[in-house]
Amino acid sequence: MIDLTQIPSPCYVMEESLLRRNLALIRSVQDRTGVSIILAFKAFALWKSFPIIREYIVHSTASSVAEAQLAYEEMGSLAHTYAPSYTDEEFPTFLRYSSHITFNSLSQFERFHPQVKASGRDIRCGVRINPGFSVVETDLYNPSAPGSRLGVTADRIGLHLPEGISGLHLHNLCENNSYDLERTLEVVEMKFGHLFSQIEWLNLGGGHLMTHRDYDIDHLVNLLKGLKERYPHLEIIMEPGSAFAWETGVLVATVTDIVENQGVETAMLNVSFACHMPDCLEMPYKPRIRGAYQEPVAGKPTYRMGGNSCLSGDFMGDWSFD
C-alpha cells in the first residue's frame, strides 16, 4: 500500500502491481481466444505507463491526431483510428500514423479513400456500423440512441460494401458485461451478417469491462471462440479502455476549507469534479473516498465534496466520516 502522506497533492497515483493484474487478465483473454485486444486511448492514455503495457498489449486506438501521434511515438505502433469526422487539414496526419482507418459514414469514406490509395501505404479501411440496439442506460454514453450520429445503420448500408472497405467497426457498449456483448452480436449478425463474407476484420469496439470483479471471463472466452468458429476468416478486434485502468489507483486531494450554507457543509478540495473527474458528473459516478462511508450515516459528520472550479455544479455528495 502506498503511503499517501508522501504523495504531493493533487496527484493521480497508479499502482504498478494493480495495473499488471489487469494487463495479465486482458492478455489471457487474447491468448485464450485468438482475438486482438488493443488499448483505447479515449479512456486511458497515461503514456508513462506504456512501457509496462507494451509487455502485454502492443496496439492502440486513436480518435484524434494527437492520439494517433501518441500511438506511434509512445506505444511504438501504428494506430487503429476512428473519428466521427475527418477534415482535409488533419487527414494526412492520420495517414502517417495509422494502420487502420475507420470512417463514420460512407460519404466520409468516399471523400477520403482516394487519399488512402494515393498514399501507397497498406492502410486498412473500415466503416462504423450502428446496430440500432442498446444496452447503455445513460443517453450521454449511448451510441445507438434514436437519431444517433455514430455509424451507418442497416437500412443505409446496402447489400454490398464499396471497394476498399475491408472491415466493420461497432461500438455499442459502455462498461458492460459479456452478456450485453452477446445480445449485441446477435443483432449485429442478424442485420449485418450478410456483409461478413466481404470483410477481413471485425472490430467490436470498447466498453468491455472485463477486469471488473463480477465480469464472467469464461463466458466472454466462449462467446469469442464461437464467433471465430462461425467466421474463421475474420480477424476479431476488441478495444477496451476503462478495463485497463480499472481500480488501479487513486486521486490524492486535500481539503482546503469547510463551507456551510443552510445546514449543508461542503469540504472544499484542491481538485475539481468538472476538470479532474468529469465522468463523475456526466455518468454520474460517486467516487469512493478512503476512510469514508459511501452513503450518509445519521449522527456522523457528513459533508459534500466541492470542486475548486467556478462551475456551480462542481460538487458531489454526501459522505460521512467517523
Short structural description:
The protein is of the alpha/beta class and 322 residues long. The protein is built from eleven helices and 16 strands. The chain has two domains: 14-245, TIM Barrel (Alpha-Beta Barrel), CATH 3.20.20; 254-320, Lyase, Ornithine Decarboxylase, Chain A, domain 1, CATH 2.40.37.
Question: Using DSSP, what is the number of strands?
Answer: 16
For the record, the count of structural domains works out to 2
Assigned CATH architecture of the largest domain: Alpha-Beta Barrel
Give me the CATH superfamily of the largest domain: Alanine racemase
Q: Report the structural category.
A: alpha/beta
Q: What share of the residues does DSSP label as strand, in percent?
A: 15-25%
Tally of contiguous helical segments: 11
Q: End-to-end distance, in Å?
A: 22 Å
Average pLDDT: 96
What's the CATH C level of the largest domain?
Alpha Beta
Q: Roughly how many Å is the radius of gyration?
A: 22 Å
Shape: elongated
What does this structure look like?
There is one protein chain. By secondary structure, the chain is α/β, with parallel strands linked by helices. It contains eleven helices and 16 strands. The chain has two domains: 14-245, Alpha-Beta Barrel (TIM Barrel), CATH 3.20.20; 254-320, Lyase, Ornithine Decarboxylase, Chain A, domain 1, CATH 2.40.37. Helices cover 31% and strands 22% of the residues. The strands form three sheets. Strands 2, 3, 4, 5, 6, 7, 8, 9, 10 and 11 form a ten-stranded parallel beta sheet that branches. The chain has a four-stranded mixed beta sheet with strand order 13-14-15-16, with no helix packed on it. A two-stranded antiparallel ribbon has the order 1-12.
